[in-house]
Amino acid sequence: MKIAVLPGDGIGHEIIAEAVKVLNVLDLSLELETASVGGTAYKEQGHPLPESTLKLAKEADAILFGAVGDFQYDNLERHLRPEQAILGLRKELGLFANLRPAICYEQLTHASSLKPELVAGLDLLIIRELTGDIYFGQPRGRRTATDGHFPGAEEAFDTMRYSRPEIERIAHTAFQAARKRKNKVTSVDKANVLETFQFWRDVVTEVHQQYQDVTLEHMYVDNAAMQLVKAPKNLDVVVTGNMFGDILSDEAAMLTGSIGMLPSASLNARSQGLYEPSHGSAPDIAGQGIANPLATILSAAMMLRYSLNQAEAADRIEQAVQTVLAQGLRTGDIYSEGTTRVGTAQMGDAVVAAL
Amino acid sequence: MKIAVLPGDGIGHEIIAEAVKVLNVLDLSLELETASVGGTAYKEQGHPLPESTLKLAKEADAILFGAVGDFQYDNLERHLRPEQAILGLRKELGLFANLRPAICYEQLTHASSLKPELVAGLDLLIIRELTGDIYFGQPRGRRTATDGHFPGAEEAFDTMRYSRPEIERIAHTAFQAARKRKNKVTSVDKANVLETFQFWRDVVTEVHQQYQDVTLEHMYVDNAAMQLVKAPKNLDVVVTGNMFGDILSDEAAMLTGSIGMLPSASLNARSQGLYEPSHGSAPDIAGQGIANPLATILSAAMMLRYSLNQAEAADRIEQAVQTVLAQGLRTGDIYSEGTTRVGTAQMGDAVVAAL
Ligand SMILES: CC(C)[C@H](C(=O)O)[C@@H](O)C(=O)O
Ligand SMILES: CC(C)[C@H](C(=O)O)[C@@H](O)C(=O)O
């Protein structure tokens, strides 16, 4: 089983190193190959997603991804900026299903902005469509407006779109995930305003015919943003488009108060997947050895489960993370009085020890 | 001064009645004229925004709007659904600037989902562009895909767009509002992915040249959704597009825990405005006399301030609302132990008494 390891920028290298440590003690026959991506790749090779990195990613069974982005690349032209690497990988590998768990760990409930009773035990799964919508729709660009409020003015535009098969496959992903959980799916759209999301609602409703054992509810995106704050535990599996999913999955992650703990998976139809922490590259703390590696370690666990068919090893890692939390070990982002503050490498070592 | 009063559906009639009560005791020479809108108008006249209602709205100096929407209209064709009334009014009157305050009242801090220290004293203003973006962009519809992942498949699509003058005018609104507040604007976009919002960022930055006394920061929408949860008090004036504003303004409103208290204003270039509570039509509690009329009463205050040039009267209403809160009067949505539960009409009467 071949894994492409792409550390990226900022804290990427530090957190990936710990996940690699953990994978290495599992005694599975994994072949890990590292390549650069993001701003680092731009610096070294002139492009955030070099051909060689893309080739490695395509050949691998799974990709373990750190994070990309750094202030120093903010003024590059768009197609050279670090985030193009992640957009490019999603597109080139067809990684249409993004699974973003938002879990509130018992020991970390206090770290949430929300009152403990609202988030204690929270375990919700946001399923974001990742290769369609306004992220990739054509045409897009700048032009002179020919209609609208200011004909003749300069304008910029993008195209939102979803085709039936794109909606169908992500709906199947959601209903199947719901069957392994609480048999409930909330589909988030803006059917009252957008043609794209009226169609989304229609197609999700059709696919639901094949999953009569699962309850389906439809919710407008503005209401979903509210319900996440008001009563997140009323939601279980939430499925939505790329743009709304970007916003809601980050909102949900922040609700838990411990985004440093949250992994993610982005899968294609062949179960090839890219696995990365839900948090970013945090350039402000890069190189200090204080970043939380647990989201990346848990991403490696998701990788074992979803792409490498090693559910047992995944369970072991997740169990080991529970153990280090129970031991009171905490990186700075989740530290609270009475616990033991550790650095990135110490946390990784502790997980290894717990294994 | 002529005011179009449009109660709408659900609790609309009940809450508007209290705002009208309040306006009537102010002894301003206001001419109020009522017309139907939304599902109610569809039922009576076959269209959610009848010609006569639109005509009245256009002639009036301001519109006091209740709420629209009810489950019974969910299966109507889109162009006949209640929410088309509000979209139509925004478009026909050119109400491009939506001001959505998110204020956490001292006495109601406990009602928030967030820990009290995070929201106590929260006073943020979201300025949402309201007549552009993907809400109104053409073309939109269904068609057969000619490219993308599934050429030949059925697809639906919408067009996101912003022209330079549309961005300029809402940026001016934001910077001017900031001058009356903390001299800080956060512009929310998705410049890393969307052409429309790269342009948005560019134009806002240009307009900012004229407001060097105001600090401008740019924030991605996914990050904004997180920062609202993490540290809402770090934000003051937030300006964004129609779609992102829809989501973020509702998220922010819910953070306060008392959406029943939050007014909104939608203004055009001539300071004509539509004023409505931030909450919806709540058909589940309609007709029971328990809805909170304060958001609507506070919307009437905003109307006096922004469209009718009666800042003093506006202050008086806002003061009266503070008084009834201090008296411990609460409708069900904001009730807590030790306070006095009142109905819609009693609450309106109390505000009148406080005046
Ligand atoms: C970096 C950016 C392009 C990306 C996105 O918008 O998808 C990120 O926010 C994410 O959610 O992975
Ligand atoms: C009813 C709907 C069309 C409307 C919108 O999306 O703008 C509403 O959510 C709002 O925010 O006023």
UniProtKB/TrEMBL annotation, chains A, B:
Chief site of localization: cytoplasm
Enzyme class: oxidoreductase
Requisite cofactors: Mn(2+); Mg(2+)
Binding positions (NAD(+)): G280, S281, A282, P283, D284, I285, A286, G287, Q288, G289, I290, A291, N292
Pfam families cross-referenced by the UniProt entry: Iso_dh
EC number: 1.1.1.85
The keyword Isomerase is assigned to this record: no
Stored PROSITE patterns: IDH_IMDH
Annotated Mg(2+) binding sites: D222, D246, D250
One example of a Gene Ontology biological process annotation: L-leucine biosynthetic process
Recorded metabolic or biological pathway in which this protein acts: Amino-acid biosynthesis; L-leucine biosynthesis; L-leucine from 3-methyl-2-oxobutanoate: step 3/4
Residues annotated for substrate binding in this entry: R90, R100, R128, D222
Domain Isopropylmalate dehydrogenase-like residue range list: 2-351
Keyword tags: Amino-acid biosynthesis, Branched-chain amino acid biosynthesis, Cytoplasm, Leucine biosynthesis, Magnesium, Manganese, Metal-binding, NAD, Oxidoreductase
Coiled-coil positions: none
Positions marked as site (Important for catalysis): Y135, K190
Cofactor note: Binds 1 Mg(2+) or Mn(2+) ion per subunit.
Subcellular location: Cytoplasm
Entry-linked InterPro entries: IsoCit/isopropylmalate_DH_CS (IPR019818), IsoPropMal-DH-like_dom (IPR024084), Isopropylmalate_DH (IPR004429)
Gene Ontology molecular function, alphabetical: 3-isopropylmalate dehydrogenase activity; magnesium ion binding; NAD binding
GO cellular component: cytosol
Chain's role: Catalyzes the oxidation of 3-carboxy-2-hydroxy-4-methylpentanoate (3-isopropylmalate) to 3-carboxy-4-methyl-2-oxopentanoate. The product decarboxylates to 4-methyl-2 oxopentanoate.
Sequence similarity: Belongs to the isocitrate and isopropylmalate dehydrogenases family. LeuB type 1 subfamily.
Oligomeric form and interacting partners: Homodimer.
Annotated NCBIfam families: leuB (TIGR00169)
Protein name: 3-isopropylmalate dehydrogenase
